[in-house]
Please model this.
Amino acid sequence: MFLTPGRREIGAIAHYTGLLVASLALGMLFPLVTALVAHEWDPALDYALGIGVAAALGMALAQAAPRGTPLSRRDALLVTALAWFSASLVAAVPLSLSGHYGSFIDAYFDAMSGLTTSGLTLAQDLDHMALAHNMWRHLTHLIGGQGIIVAALSVAVGLKGGGAVSLYMAEARDERILPNVMHTARFIWFVTAVYVALGTVALSISNLLAGMEFGRGVLHAFWATIACYDTGGFGPQSQNALYYHSPIFEIVTVILMLGGTLNFNLHADLWRGDRTEIFKNLEARALAINIGILSVAVGLGLGASSLFSGPAEVLRKGVYHLISANSGTGHQSLYPAAWTGPYGGLALGAIILAMAFGGMASSTAGGIKALRLGLIAKGVVLRVRQALAPTSAIVQVGYHHLLDVQLTAEVLSNALMVFMLYVVTYISGAIAGAAYGYPIGAALFESVSATANVGLSTGITNPAMPVGLKLVYIVQMWAGRLEFVALFALAATVFAVLRRRMARA
Model:
């Protein structure tokens, strides 16, 4: 039986949820400053209000328990699920006031999409959106890409001790780069800062060479860097990456996408000068094989369409979209609707698989993750060896992931469980889309994109989409980002509370 939280536990859950929500007020200072510098007075008021809502709600919840209150692993899961839900609500406040969304649900959709680094959007007239609002949309990628909890730990907003450790692990992070989670969080942000700085410089040069005005070119470079490194996919223009028509832009952003999908432990090894780990790591090998095979499939599919000028363009567009899909970035340099039309079933299927598989664990990428695919492949090898070996033989299969380890039944079982949860969610979302009248191929594409936090679209995701489907995709983005466990814990708790109340009635 799943126990309902007592008064003390509820207080602790509210306290930590409040601290995490309040931390968003710090993030909103950046679009507020942007609005003031750009003389965007109405957006400035939007973010002043957003800061007030985040601070007031967050601090009100934080008063439910004293600072440093212990937090169990179960309660940490509940805090994580509630924090992502609540943070998206607060993040949606200034967006809903912008005039670029048809309803608060649409703004909430974009806030959830931004924080989960999904990149699907319901924004209207994006080409004329204020600088401050575009700044906030992309900053949600930056906050959510590293994780709301990691962001809060980095600025130490009252998160210390065992509660910090429990929250860190509850946010689908089970690896520590450094012994202390605070130091780990700051290292993650250090790596991010390096990538963002270098990417912004490189793309600024690219934009200026293309003829962009200086300020606009730098802002676009900064936003594109965040969107690609944090594998988000938002863009300041409705045409997304297609707007730039630049091979240099595509090369730089591919590097950023690959950097974003790299496990932060591998970033740490590279920073220490260890170049060998990335070549022998099971996860890195699985991702490389995945990208290689699916790139060929996408290339063959696009090449068969006869819509491109030659093999060079097919290679350029195919590899770009494959890495965009695999990393969970969702940047597009091809027209969305063509995926279910002239590009053919092979390219469509390969992109769906790339989105579904995703990038590496402990990165900004979503999806099933290359590590789990590698573990499942090792599990198949183990079963084959066991079938061929004498009955009395003890058969083991080892692999290298940071350390040399033996594959255990528990590790394999966990990988298979998460794999099946993703597959079931992909299919469920596709059925929901088909129920609303969309073609099953397009519905599956969109469902996988939402759950794996990718952002590529066939055109289904738009402001006119049925409200019910918007809610389905919101839940899918939320569940996929947290890899289901935290959401299941929240659902089980709500069910237990309702059942208890019904029993008393």
About this structure: The chain is about 70% helix and 0% strand. The mean pLDDT is 88. Residues 1-174 form one domain.
